[in-house]
C-alpha cells in the first residue's frame, strides 16, 4: 500500500522539477543582459542592442494601413461589433472556417501557388511552440527519439521534449560543406541511435533553416523524404520562415516535393507553421499543424483544445489574409525589405572583415567569428560572447546554444529593429583601443561612447595585436 | 505509427452522448427558420450580458489595436510574446478576481499565469503537480471535460468522491477518506483534490465549513487542493460565494498546496477568447506553470482588450450586478415553471444551468433507463440536455439543463416543450415500441463504452463530438 510520505514528499511533478524547460541555456543569458540594460535611442543610447530575437518588424506599416481601411476585421469597431457575441462564444476546435480557408490560401501563396492546402487539414495550436509539442505528442511515446539536424533552434529542446518525454538525436552539420545535411550524417545518426536501443520515431527539419538562414534544395528534400519513407519514420517540417526567403534560390516546400513522389507514404508527412516570423505577429499565438495523416489531424485537433487561437484573433486574421491584394503586396514588400536589410548588414560586416554564411532567408545571419576565439571550444565561444555583450553592447546568440558542433558561430538578428538602430550597430566611429601585451583576456578601454560598434569589433580583428593570427580576409570566406 | 496517446481514447470523445449533439447539429432550433428544431440546453454558455459589453466596446475604441484610437499599439502588442503576459492584463485580471469575491481577498498580479482557457489551465496544473499514474480525488458529479483535461496527456487518474442528493451532494469528510483509502488500496498515489466551486453541474456553492473541512483534509494528507472557481461570478443570490482564498486567510495552512484555476469563459461569456488563468500560492508552481504557459498563451490582442475592459471598475461593477440579476431572473422563471409541472431541481444559486430531477420519470433507477429517457427528451421533446451519468453521477435520473445560452423567446419555447414532457406521465410505456430500437442502439454504444470496475461507475467520456456546435469542440 502506498503511503503519502509526510513532509518528505516531493510536492511537484518530475516534469516540474526537471530542467527540461531549458531556460538555463546560454541562449537566455543574453536576453537577461538585454532586459537589465535595454537600448533606447534617446533614453538609453548605451544600452544593449537586442540582436538575439528573431522578430520581423519590417512591415507593420502595411498592416496598420490595412487595419485602418478594414474596420470590419475587428469585433470592436462600429463596423464589426455586431459580430462580437458570435465570435466571443465561438470555441469550436475546428476554428472559424474563414480562418482556416485564409490560412490555407496564405500558405499556398507563400509557396507561389505551386501547392494547394486543404483548409480541413489546418489545425490550430498555441504558436509554433504549441504546434511542435502537439505533433510530438501525436507521433511519439515517452522515451522515443527524433533526429534533428544541428545547429537547431534552442527551444526545440523544451518544445519537443519537456512534457512529451521525447529526446532529440542531433545530426551534426559542418561548415566545411555549408552545413548541408548529408546522407551519411543522416544514416550515421540513425544507426547510432539504433545501436543505443533508441526508438527513432521521426526526423524534424526546419526549412528555411534557423539559425542558418538557408533553404534546402530539391535534391536534399527528396533524399530526406526517401530516407524517412524507407525507415518508416515521420518527417516533421517546420516551415515557419517560408515567407522570409528574400533572394534566390526560391523556397521549396516538402509539400511540393512529395507531389512528384507518388511512392511516398503521405501519412508520414507533417508541416508546422506559424505567423510569428513571416508576418511578425508572435504575440497572437497563431500556430498551425498541417498533416497529411488523417488520424494525426483528428488527434491534433482534439489536442488543440489545450491551446486554441483566440477567436478574436482568428476573425481579424481571416479578414486580413483573405485579402489577396494585401497578401500579395505584403509578401512582395517583405521580401524586398528583408533583402535590403540583409545586403546592407552583411555588406557592412564584410567591410570590416566579418563573414557570414551565405544565406537567402530568415531574419538573421549566421556570423563566423571563429578566428576571434582564443580557443576553439565552447568555453572560448562563450567568453567571446560575453565580451560582445558587455563591450560591444549587442546581444547575439552563441552557436553552442544552437548545438552547433563547431565553436565560433553566432546568430545575429537584423529584422527586429528600425533602420536607425541598425545603423548604430554598423557605424564606424573610431575610438582608441588599448591592449596590454601578454594579457590572457583581451581588455579594451576607450574614450567617448562606452560601447563599441560591430565595426570596431572588426577593427580588433584587423589590428596587428589581434589574438588571432588568421584573419577572415586571409581565409576569404564568404 | 502514432503515439499511444493519439491512438487511445484519452480524448474522451467516444460516448453515447453523440446522439444529443447529432440531433442538435442536424436540426438546430431557429425561431423563424426552424421553429421545430432541437433547442440546445447542453451548453453552459453565458449569453445574457453582451449588450452591456458591446456598449462598453463602442465607448472604448482604444481597447482594440485595430481602431484609429488603438492602432498605434498594434506593433508593440503584436510583437509581445513574453510569457509573463502584459502587466496591465495581469493587474486587471487580479482586480477582477478580487471584485468577484466582493473585495474580501487580494490577488497578486505576479501570481497570475496564463493558459489556453480553463482547459489548458487544468492540464497545466496537473503537469506541474502530478506524475503519470498519480491521482486526484474529484467530487462527483463533475464536469465531463475533466476526464480529458486532467488525464489525457498527463497520465493522471481521477478517483471520484461520491456525493449524494440525499444530503445535497455535500462533500463530506468521510466520502473524501473513503475515496482516499480506495486509491491507497489500489496502490495509487493521491497527489491532490480538485473541487469546482461554484459547482458544475450542481450550481451550488460550498459553505465555509465544507471548504474548511476539505482544506484540512488536504493539509493533513499533505496533498494539493486545486479549486476551479470558473463560475465565481455566476452566483446570483445568497448564500454568497466563498473562495478558497478567503478560507486561507482565516486559518493557518501551508499555501504551497493551494491553487486556483480560473477563466473568463463563464463569468464574462468569452469562451472563444481562451483566457485561462492559473493562480498558485506555491512559488515553484507559479514559475513552472509560467514556463509551461508558452504552450498556450493568451493572444496579446485579447490580453489588451481584456486589460482595458477589466480595469474599468465602473464597467465591472455594472456588469457583475447586471449579470447576477439576469441570471437570477432566468433561474427563477425556469425553476418556477418546472416546479409548476412537477419537475423539481436541486436548489441552487449559481452557475449557468440547473440540476433537474427526473428520477420519477425513469422506468428503473438505472443508467440505461436514464439514457433511454434522455433519448426521448432529445427526439420527442426536442431539447438537448446533459444526462447525469456523463457527469459521473451515481444516481440515475438527474439532468443538467443550461439556461443562460439563449434569449427569452427561445427559453419560452423550451419551457413549453418541457411542460409537454412532464405531461407524459405514462411516457416510458408509451415509448416502449420506439424504445426497442433505441435500446439496440444504446446497447451497441454501451458495449463500446469503457467500464471502469475500479471506479465502480460507468465511464462515459466527455460530451464531445467532432461536429460543429457540438460539445466535443467546446467545453460544456
Automatic annotation (TrEMBL), chain A:
It holds the Pfam family Aminotran_1_2. Pathway: Alkene biosynthesis; ethylene biosynthesis via S-adenosyl-L-methionine; ethylene from S-adenosyl-L-methionine: step 1/2. SUPFAM superfamilies: PLP-dependent transferases. This is 1-aminocyclopropane-1-carboxylate synthase. Its EC number is 4.4.1.14. The keyword Glycoprotein does not apply. Keywords: Ethylene biosynthesis, Lyase, Pyridoxal phosphate, S-adenosyl-L-methionine. Residues 49-427 form the Aminotransferase class I/classII large domain. The keyword Lyase applies. Signal peptide: none annotated. InterPro entries: Aminotransferase_I/II_large, Ethylene_sulfur-biosynth, NHTrfase_class1_PyrdxlP-BS, PyrdxlP-dep_Trfase, PyrdxlP-dep_Trfase_major, PyrdxlP-dep_Trfase_small. Belongs to the class-I pyridoxal-phosphate-dependent aminotransferase family. PROSITE patterns: AA_TRANSFER_CLASS_1 (PS00105). GO terms for molecular function: 1-aminocyclopropane-1-carboxylate synthase activity; pyridoxal phosphate binding; transaminase activity. It catalyses: S-adenosyl-L-methionine = 1-aminocyclopropane-1-carboxylate + S-methyl-5'-thioadenosine + H(+). GO terms for biological process: ethylene biosynthetic process. Its cofactor is pyridoxal 5'-phosphate.
TrEMBL record, chain B:
Residues 39-418 form the Aminotransferase class I/classII large domain. Keywords: Ethylene biosynthesis, Lyase, Pyridoxal phosphate, S-adenosyl-L-methionine. It comes from the Eukaryota. It catalyses: S-adenosyl-L-methionine = 1-aminocyclopropane-1-carboxylate + S-methyl-5'-thioadenosine + H(+). Pfam families: Aminotran_1_2. InterPro entries: Aminotransferase_I/II_large, Ethylene_sulfur-biosynth, NHTrfase_class1_PyrdxlP-BS, PyrdxlP-dep_Trfase, PyrdxlP-dep_Trfase_major, PyrdxlP-dep_Trfase_small. One of its GO terms (biological process) is ethylene biosynthetic process. Pathway: Alkene biosynthesis; ethylene biosynthesis via S-adenosyl-L-methionine; ethylene from S-adenosyl-L-methionine: step 1/2. Gene3D superfamilies: Aspartate Aminotransferase, domain 1, Type I PLP-dependent aspartate aminotransferase-like (Major domain). Its EC number is 4.4.1.14. GO terms for molecular function: 1-aminocyclopropane-1-carboxylate synthase activity; pyridoxal phosphate binding; transaminase activity. PROSITE patterns: AA_TRANSFER_CLASS_1 (PS00105). The keyword Lyase applies. Its cofactor is pyridoxal 5'-phosphate. Belongs to the class-I pyridoxal-phosphate-dependent aminotransferase family. This is 1-aminocyclopropane-1-carboxylate synthase. It comes from Carnegiea gigantea.
